[in-house]
Design goal:
Number of strands: 16
Distance between the termini: 46 Å
Oligomer: single chain
Radius of gyration: 23 Å
Number of helices: 16
Strand order of the largest sheet: 12-11-13-1-14-15-4-16
Length: 432
């Protein structure tokens, strides 16, 4: 086969600049970790995993470590994704409930207050026996509660994945003001009585909202504990979903859309509702992918296929993988390691093989979830960027320690999208 001429190479590169280089951003939730002693070695799940595709991308690209919010600040998944996608979380954070509701497909109004919620199991004294009700929800339970009206406010409920739900309070009349400044009713632990929702500000809107939440919880519990679905669950030894735990109140507002902000179109491929919600909040299109579940059984190849097809229409596709975070929270080193190996083989390899030569591939995490502490931490996360025109460093494998020696050095999450935009040809010059 003849080698392409210099003129052809020049024309292809010129066209790529004119048309705009494409990009795939892969975020492995909670991928970052701290080393633990395994035999004679200190390893993280990422350094211990067999990830030849990630290693080759790192060797052919540029690497660094990233403080997604800022050094030492422990990111939530919601604020972290705002930062990664180019929005200052201190300015644009609407509250977790808003993102959950948007991710559930709800259209929100600026008067709405939204909550993240769990179906839970409580006893007759409202002591929590299982915060997640066996990780099982039911659309029939949703239907029994959705649309309840309390004091001029309609309650909208959506059961999303498993036990997870979104709850929206929507005023039915002008002049009914609600507030996000109310406390959680979820104590975040089993064996504790459900907390009363309380106003966090001394104003009518906060007091009204807290009173409505408490009345909603009382009424919904009366419905749920007598529902045939829960009676049948109890007979089978399955924890009944007889209570709703609300937390993360937020008020919806509009922000500058992603395309207007960065100059190119973007789409999101995710399984869990939070990440779809963040994407919808900033104006990304959210793509439906069959069997993209947000759990360890998610279909990674289907995500890769959907993302690659979307590149025909969009300039950037954001792919989210949740399960790495789940294994971190469970303290499961081997599970997290195996999930990273699946990501390498079933997602990264597929994207790398099919993506065009003028497609950037960036891989990172939204935060660290070390298996040793089973929670988010402030440790920086590894980042690699691979593609035409990217400066190469001498890093040869992708893990937390190796990435720290890379050419990107140490940066913030807010720096990622401007860097990708510049490499894609959608730069904005500061000054003249």
């Amino acid at each position: 086969m003849r080698e392409p001429s210099n003129i052809k190479i020049f024309l292809e590169r010129f066209q790529a600049v004119v048309m705009g280089v494409k990009a795939v951003l892969i975020v492995c939730d909670g991928m970052g970790d701290r080393p633990v002693r395994r035999g004679h070695e200190w390893e993280t799940p990422l350094s211990a995993a067999n990830t030849p595709n990630l290693d080759e991308l790192a060797a052919e690209g540029v690497n660094g470590i990233m403080d997604v919010i800022s050094p030492g600040i422990v990111p939530g998944s919601d604020t972290a994704h705002l930062a990664l996608l180019g929005y200052d979380p201190y300015e644009h954070y609407a509250g977790r409930g808003v993102f959950e509701a948007l991710g559930a497909g709800l259209e929100l109004r600026e008067c709405d207050v939204a909550f993240r919620a769990n179906f839970a199991t409580v006893d007759e004294r409202l002591v929590i026996k299982d915060r997640r009700a066996g990780r099982k929800g039911d659309k029939r339970l949703e239907a029994a509660i959705d649309g309840m009206e309390i004091d001029g406010v309609r309650v909208i409920l959506r059961n999303t994945v498993g036990h997870r739900c979104a709850v929206v309070l929507r005023p039915l009349e002008e002049g009914v003001k609600l507030s996000k400044y109310v406390s959680d009713c979820d104590p975040h632990a089993d064996g504790i009585r459900v907390a009363e929702c309380k106003p966090l500000r001394d104003d009518d809107a906060a007091r009204r909202t807290a009173a409505i939440v408490n009345e909603f919880l009382r009424r919904s519990h009366e419905i749920l504990k007598e529902h045939p679905v829960n009676k049948e669950r109890a007979e089978r030894g399955v924890p009944p979903a007889n209570f709703l735990l609300l937390r993360g109140a937020g008020e919806f507002f509009r922000v500058e859309g992603f395309e207007e902000r960065w100059g190119f179109r973007a789409a999101c491929v995710a399984g869990a509702s939070l990440y779809k919600g963040v994407a919808r909040f900033i104006g990304m299109d959210v793509l439906h992918v069959e069997n993209a579940t947000g759990d360890p059984n998610t279909d990674l190849r289907a995500k890769a296929s959907a993302a690659l097809k979307a590149l025909e229409e969009y300039d950037l596709v954001f792919i989210h993988v949740k399960a790495t975070d789940n294994f971190g929270h469970d303290g499961d080193f081997e599970g997290k390691k195996r999930m990273l190996e699946r990501i390498d083989e079933e997602l990264v390899a597929e994207v790398r093989e099919v993506a065009r030569s003028d497609t950037l591939i960036a891989v990172t995490a939204d935060h660290s979830t070390p298996v040793s502490v089973k929670r988010h931490s402030g440790d920086p996360v590894p980042l690699l960027i691979h593609g035409e025109g990217v400066r190469r460093d001498d890093v040869s494998s992708f893990d937390e320690l190796s990435a720290a020696r890379g050419g990107l050095c140490r940066l913030r999450g807010a720096d990622l999208m401007p860097m990708l935009a510049d490499l894609m040809g959608f730069f904005k010059m500061y000054g003249t």
